[in-house]
């Protein structure tokens, strides 16, 4: 009987000493050198993709883009290619015979160029929109980053004086 009492007491003590399966208690300590600062970022979650709302988007004036923008044809440095952006939103291809630009639009730092293929025997000759980020823009220089390009790729154009008849 003495063994049963000792065994029961031992089981009760062991059971009481085991950690509970309920919520764990947390011990918090305060470091007086740290200051609590509220999070000021505005983050929205959409379809498990984090989108950070920013207010520092670069915005360009569409009037800066109006004009004839040229770059050397790859492999033919004496030949030039590019596009003409008109005030009315129309775009014209220059020396890109199969790629025909139709119109353009500027949204903050993003240049959208609508185009279609001509003279190409392809199943996919539908109209597309080239989406490019303006990396720099001056009175004479335009540097674009196509969003589908590899990081670090840039297209550089020089503004040309348009000779009107």
Shape descriptor reads: rod-shaped
In round numbers, the mean pLDDT is 78
How many angstroms separate the termini? 119 Å
Strand residues, percent: 35-45%
Uncertain stretches of 5 or more adjacent residues: 45-54
| Rg computed from alpha carbons, rounded to a whole number of angstroms | 33 Å
The structure class reads: mainly beta
SSE order in H/E notation? HEEHEEEEEEEE
Number of separate strands = 10
Strand arrangement across the biggest beta sheet: 5-4-3-10-9-8-7-6
Q: Share of helix among residues?
A: 10-25%
What kind of sheet is the major sheet?
8 strands, antiparallel
Number of helical segments with 4 or more residues:
2
Write the layout of secondary structure elements.
Blueprint: H1 2-17, E1 43-46, E2 49-52, H2 62-65, E3 67-73, E4 76-85, E5 91-94, E6 99-107, E7 110-117, E8 128-137, E9 141-146, E10 155-160
Antiparallel strand pairs: 1-2, 3-4, 3-10, 4-5, 6-7, 7-8, 8-9, 9-10
Task: Explain how this protein is built.
The chain is mostly beta strands. The chain is built from two helices and ten strands, in the order αββαββββββββ. It has an eight-stranded antiparallel sheet. The protein has a two-stranded antiparallel ribbon with strand order 1-2. Strand 3 and strand 4 (76-85) form a beta hairpin. It is rod-shaped, with a radius of gyration of 33 Å. Mean pLDDT is 78; it is low at 45-54.
């Amino acid at each position: 009987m003495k063994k049963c009492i000792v065994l029961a007491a031992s089981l009760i003590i062991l059971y009481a000493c085991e950690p509970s399966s309920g919520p764990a208690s947390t011990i918090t300590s305060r470091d007086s050198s740290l200051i609590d600062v509220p999070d000021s970022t505005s983050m929205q979650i959409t379809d498990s993709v984090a989108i950070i709302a920013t207010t520092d988007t670069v915005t360009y004036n569409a009037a800066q883009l109006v004009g004839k923008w040229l770059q050397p044809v790859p492999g033919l440095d004496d030949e030039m290619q590019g596009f003409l952006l008109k005030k009315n939103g129309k775009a014209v291809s220059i020396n890109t015979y199969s790629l025909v630009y139709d119109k353009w639009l500027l949204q903050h730092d993003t240049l959208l160029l609508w185009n279609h293929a001509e003279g190409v025997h392809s199943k996919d000759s539908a109209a597309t929109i080239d989406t490019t980020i303006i990396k720099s823009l001056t009175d004479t220089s335009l540097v674009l980053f196509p969003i589908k390009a590899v990081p670090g790729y840039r297209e550089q154009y020089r503004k040309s004086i348009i000779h009107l008849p």
